[in-house]
Amino acid sequence: MSQFEALNALKTIRPSGRKPDQLRSITIETGVTRYAEGSCMVSFGHTKVLVTASVEQGVPPFLKGKGQGWVTAEYGMLPRSTHTRSRREAAAGKQSGRTQEIQRLIGRSMRAVVDLKALGERQITIDCDVIQADGGTRTAAITGAWVALSMACNYLLIEKVISKNPILDQIAAISCGIFAGTPVLDLDYEEDSNAETDANFVITGSGDAVEIQATGEKRGFSRDEFNALFDLAHAGAIELFALQNKALGK
Amino acid sequence: MSQFEALNALKTIRPSGRKPDQLRSITIETGVTRYAEGSCMVSFGHTKVLVTASVEQGVPPFLKGKGQGWVTAEYGMLPRSTHTRSRREAAAGKQSGRTQEIQRLIGRSMRAVVDLKALGERQITIDCDVIQADGGTRTAAITGAWVALSMACNYLLIEKVISKNPILDQIAAISCGIFAGTPVLDLDYEEDSNAETDANFVITGSGDAVEIQATGEKRGFSRDEFNALFDLAHAGAIELFALQNKALGK
Amino acid sequence: MSQFEALNALKTIRPSGRKPDQLRSITIETGVTRYAEGSCMVSFGHTKVLVTASVEQGVPPFLKGKGQGWVTAEYGMLPRSTHTRSRREAAAGKQSGRTQEIQRLIGRSMRAVVDLKALGERQITIDCDVIQADGGTRTAAITGAWVALSMACNYLLIEKVISKNPILDQIAAISCGIFAGTPVLDLDYEEDSNAETDANFVITGSGDAVEIQATGEKRGFSRDEFNALFDLAHAGAIELFALQNKALGK
Amino acid sequence: MSQFEALNALKTIRPSGRKPDQLRSITIETGVTRYAEGSCMVSFGHTKVLVTASVEQGVPPFLKGKGQGWVTAEYGMLPRSTHTRSRREAAAGKQSGRTQEIQRLIGRSMRAVVDLKALGERQITIDCDVIQADGGTRTAAITGAWVALSMACNYLLIEKVISKNPILDQIAAISCGIFAGTPVLDLDYEEDSNAETDANFVITGSGDAVEIQATGEKRGFSRDEFNALFDLAHAGAIELFALQNKALGK
Amino acid sequence: MSQFEALNALKTIRPSGRKPDQLRSITIETGVTRYAEGSCMVSFGHTKVLVTASVEQGVPPFLKGKGQGWVTAEYGMLPRSTHTRSRREAAAGKQSGRTQEIQRLIGRSMRAVVDLKALGERQITIDCDVIQADGGTRTAAITGAWVALSMACNYLLIEKVISKNPILDQIAAISCGIFAGTPVLDLDYEEDSNAETDANFVITGSGDAVEIQATGEKRGFSRDEFNALFDLAHAGAIELFALQNKALGK
Amino acid sequence: MSQFEALNALKTIRPSGRKPDQLRSITIETGVTRYAEGSCMVSFGHTKVLVTASVEQGVPPFLKGKGQGWVTAEYGMLPRSTHTRSRREAAAGKQSGRTQEIQRLIGRSMRAVVDLKALGERQITIDCDVIQADGGTRTAAITGAWVALSMACNYLLIEKVISKNPILDQIAAISCGIFAGTPVLDLDYEEDSNAETDANFVITGSGDAVEIQATGEKRGFSRDEFNALFDLAHAGAIELFALQNKALGK
Question: What is the 3-state secondary structure (H, E, C) of chain C?
Fold first, then answer.
């Protein structure tokens, strides 16, 4: 009986009735906006994120004349994407620290699998707007971002703007956590609010990680606990890669 | 042959092939988010606006202790809701003058048909987020806002938080304009960018107007021209009222 | 007995004792500052707005190299121009939505009567600063703005910077409203605070309108009511054109 | 022959033809706005500052419950009060360091001659808005501020809000500088831009100074030079006190 | 030969000549400011961070009346703490995303080892100001923050403000990375700029982790690589705990 | 018996036990950071300011192409440099009026003794960060700024970037005040908070002043009182010049 089989044999403690290693129902619908070069609505259960990839000529000042492109990301939550309404960041006059942290993470993750030289002197901006939040918005955003980014690169190839696909590898992200003492995959909001440890993993198609952010919310976590989370994440990522490919019609 | 029949007899000059007094295909889908007390996705052709109505206890400081409620609105466009990406207002650190103008208009329009005393000391915030923009986002937002607001008031009635429906009348909004010399109803982006005159009308179920904003974009407009636009708006509003009622299951 | 004669026959209901179609005492004093290329102090009764027109070389980035000029406007109220002191916008760190709405309106109105090609690659900025506010500041500002703008264009002609007057038509603005059930012209603050409907009209010398902003403050307004306001505005504009011309020594 | 007679005997080097110890033509017109509890337009030659004093109930948080009042000041320049248009601070989103420095100086100066206990728990805000700038705006502002402040205190006495005049002494301000090697009084813009040393003195009716700000613009200044400026300031202040009293009808 | 012995047997590839598992020279000098309830200057080689812990009565609004305290942190870099001068954040008008990310990390780390109930309704703010930056500023800041926090808690115990030490465990942080293909401990700037993977670990005295942030800078990292970094971090933390205790005189 | 001997003969009234004309213990330690072209930690008693001088290519836009350089300064206080923690300006989103006033003063003072032509088209930015505040931070900052600036100029000479030393004269600053009726030199915080008059003098090696800022805190000050302060400042400056030279190894 494998590690996961053992976990799953337990009477589940998850509010949703899911098994510890079970993802929520995940869908990635592409082509959801008319204008963006790439777009998708990615749903992880009730979490829904609208992702667009926009191609623009030119690069930020610090890259001028270096013969390479740039990929960056912005993230936002609609004010009533949450249980109670949050203040609109545009009205507040600034993005919160959490927002900036998340959009930096998405941008770094995308750049980890893009050949910026092959992109040429242009920028792709990934906008991730949370329509509905039920935990895991940043991992859903990253998973969808790669799909939108791939579509935008395909567009550039088809339009013969570039001749080589700058996408080097597949990438997806998933959250794991220790809930009620048990390592579980893909936390929803109810689990996330009560998790003892919360960890986000960004993993490439080759199986390497490019980002890990793990936080002990109420207590520290042991090496074994962390390893169990890492195992769950690897297994989850493989499912996400398949869903991404399916969304892209591969 | 009536005024509109005469207009429609002309070989249409509209890029979409619509008749001068023809609305785009309009849909109002309610209940599109899990958390908001009222919500809808309103589409005027390719223009799509997600509207939520959020009920919160308490009122702004200037109304404290006056025994009445408040209805306000916020408006935003997703960065890639437009043909080319616009800067995210939260990143820019402020809302543009246009955004503020529109959200003030939506708020005033809603308050025109709400009995704020009957609402009690609570606030309903209408969030109008443009998912895709193809002209007429503010009028689509107002039309959807009334639907979301009605749902939120129904929620308060059902929950017995209030005993009397604060909604006094129905309200909807529509744009009209003079395009290629002809008065037309419900401008799309291509028409809007080239219109000689652009006018937005907010009209109540009783047939009165509560807001008119008319602008001569390239030249002034005559009294006759304005009257033709006003006629179109009245006729369009009647269609919108029916669509709103249908969306609410009336 | 004409429509206006009938109105005026009524025992007036206006706090100021004015007849329904009677403007306040209006003065436009030009040349009130030493430095601006055009300037005036425009008074509509107790409302006083200092307007300057400043010519600057160059145009905003979005017009670079297009062989045309630009006219824009900024608006502000001195903190104690009002009955009770308002917060200074420079100290608050931003302009209110109302301020932005008004300055956008002034700018659009001026551009409606200027040949931007004839202006060449230069910008004229109209600053409208309210010294004292008693209702109708935006319409007084527009009426004065045209005078200051004309002076600045004359200056450019006299200095032989341009060879053709870019001013295409005259333009003025006036507010009307329904006060105590009666349509009245040129609302003062006391009327404005209690008006059922408030409408601002920007009208050109040729009799066309370029902007209409009408708001039902407490209830909607009927088509007939709106038409009565429009009639008042047309009549008022003719008086304003004469005052503008007199101020310019024509 | 006194020190000043000696100076004046010299062929004047001042662009305006004034004698070294000669003030510009100075006027203080009171009651220039309808709403403010105190107001004046103060002119030092072409420099014109509109000053209002506004009484408000309550004090800033740091003074709550201490049984005393507060006097504070704000300063602004209209965008075209200067030779070339300056950016509007409200549009820029912040007040410049210079603006803050000046308004802090005005506030401190006023508080130096006010018995804050006698004022009670209320605040008087002095707004100094420069209509036209030709050097010496801060000293004109202070000189006018005392007049507006006195009027506001008189208003409180007349209304029997307070029973004792909180004004302890008279106060006025004047600039002096070394221009073309000569100490001169009340610099205009042309002198100010070329002065070797620029000094502002705030002086009370009792002859004491409450603020001195002296700056060597191109070189340092000697003790003797400073003393000559201080002498000029004392003489100028006496003239200003008389003008303030005359403005107040004393 | 253990894992680390094997690593160290290699001819070192570190620019500093350090062995792979060797910390820089680390010092923690306490009591470096007169006013703060706790303070230290923590140096990791050339990286120097001044840390103060300030006790204030009261808690943030979201904790009012909940019978518990709060620990938060702020982080900043002096403009010339870096090789080339960076823009001062106070002058720029906002904290960068990086700054916010780091100060949130420091705050979460401290709260992980504090019994907020035992702290009572007061807040301890940890200020971490980087005097000189040579890599690892956030880990140095966390390591020093625990020392300053402990001092502040001791102060509260000695002053009998609280009766029970709210510090539950020791905590320290260290960076590790893969440099030139080799896992190394405590990266300096030269290593950090060229590292293939960069990971920060926050570890408690009990050996658990409370935060892990790992980033593949140029490529992803394998599970084995990550485990090597985790091993280095555990070993490094033990050294840091001893240095913290020594600094506190334990 | 001289003026100062007479003062000193009095039983001292200073909290620190210092004589009226006695400076605090002053130290200037140079070379305190690795990266800055010039740096020092300047201490006036418990007041400690870290000063760095950073050389950058290029000048601000208003000096482009004028063949001269620029010297500017920025000032900040660490949040807990004071008795009670102050809000971090970067978190507040703006620099206070006091901060801006001080950094403008430091910049003007430095420029008064620099030949900007000799500096060439480069900028030296002086950062003055207060590590601990016990009164006199701005005068300590100026005194240290000249040392750091001199070091940066020496660096440019040694590197043969410039061929002539742009430093024209020495400069230092000192505060004086009237405390308990007595003129005293170099006020500490306890004296400063209770001083009747507070004056800052910036004085050059040639004995001229370049800046004087004197404020009557509780009452005005007489001409005689001011002269006594000026005498103290001149004497104090001579001591500071010696300390600056010693710090520079002259």
Answer: CCHHHHHHHCCCCCCCCCCCCCCCCEEEEECCCCCCCEEEEEEECCEEEEEEEEEEECCCHHHCCCCCCEEEEEEEECCCCCCCCCCCHHHHCCCCHHHHHHHHHHHHHHHCCECHHHHCCEEEEEEEEEEECCCCHHHHHHHHHHHHHHHHHHHHHHCCCCCCCCECCCEEEEEEEEECCEEEECCCHHHHHHCCEEEEEEEECCCCEEEEEEEECCCCECHHHHHHHHHHHHHHHHHHHHHHHHHCCC
Question: Which residue reads 């971490």 in tokens?
Answer: E128
E98 is in an annotated binding site: yes
* pLDDT tens per residue across span F19-78: 999 999 999 999 999 999 999 999 999 999 999 999 999 999 999 999 999 999 999 999
**Chain C adjacent subunits, 3+ CB pairs under 8 A:** B, D
Distance CA D44, CA C232 (A): 44
Residue type, D193: S
Contact at 8 Å (CB) between E53 and E151?
yes
Tokens of A136: 């895991």
Give the number of beta-carbon pairs within 8 Å between D and F.
90
A 37-96: CB under 8 A from B: 39, 46, 50, 52, 54, 56, 74, 76, 78-85, 88-95
Nearest CA in chain F to D201: F214
Q: Which residues contact D96 (CB under 8 A, 6 or more apart)?
A: D89
C48 phi and psi angles, rounded to 5 deg? -130, 125
Q: Classify strands E47-57 and E122-132 as parallel, antiparallel or unpaired.
A: antiparallel
Query: pLDDT tens for residues A11-20?
Result: 678 999 999 9
Q: Where are the domains of chain B?
A: 3-247
H or E element at residue B153: helix B137-158
Band of pLDDT at residue A9, cut at 50, 70 and 90: low
DSSP designation for D36:
S
Q: Does E65 show up as a binding residue in the annotation?
A: no
Report the alpha-carbon distance of residue A31 to residue B43 in Å, rounded: 17
- The closest CB to that of C221, out of B100, B209, B215, belongs to B209
SS3 F49: strand
Kindly report the pTM of this predicted structure.
0.92
C-alpha angle B135-B137-B143 in degrees, rounded to nearest 5:
125
- Domain F3-247: CATH class, spelled out: alpha beta
C63: which residues sit within 8 A by CB, 6+ positions away?
C69, C70, C121
Mean pLDDT per 10-residue section of chain E, whose length is 250 residues = 58 88 98 96 98 96 93 98 96 93 97 96 98 98 98 98 97 97 96 94 97 91 96 98 96
* Cβ neighbours of A83 in B, within 8 Å: 35
Contact A81 B125 (CB under 8 A): no
Q: Give the dihedral of Cα atoms C214, C110, B199, C102; nearest 10 deg.
A: -40
The dihedrals phi and psi of E151, each to the nearest 5 degrees, come to -65, -40
Strand extents, DSSP E, chain F: 26-30, 38-44, 47-57, 70-77, 122-132, 171-179, 182-185, 197-204, 209-216
Residues 6+ apart with CB under 8 A from A208: E216, E219, E220, E221, E222
Query: C103 and B97 in contact by Cβ < 8 A?
Result: yes
A127–B54 C-beta distance less than 8 A: no
E50 vs E141: CA distance, rounded Å = 8
| Portion of chain C with pLDDT greater than 90, in percent | 92
Contact A90 B88 (CB under 8 A): yes
Cβ partners under 8 Å of residue E162, min gap 6: E118, E119, E120, E153, E156
Token pair recorded at residue E163: 């009766």
Separation between Cα atoms, residue F144 and residue A235, nearest integer Å: 61
Lookup: tokens for B39: 């919500």
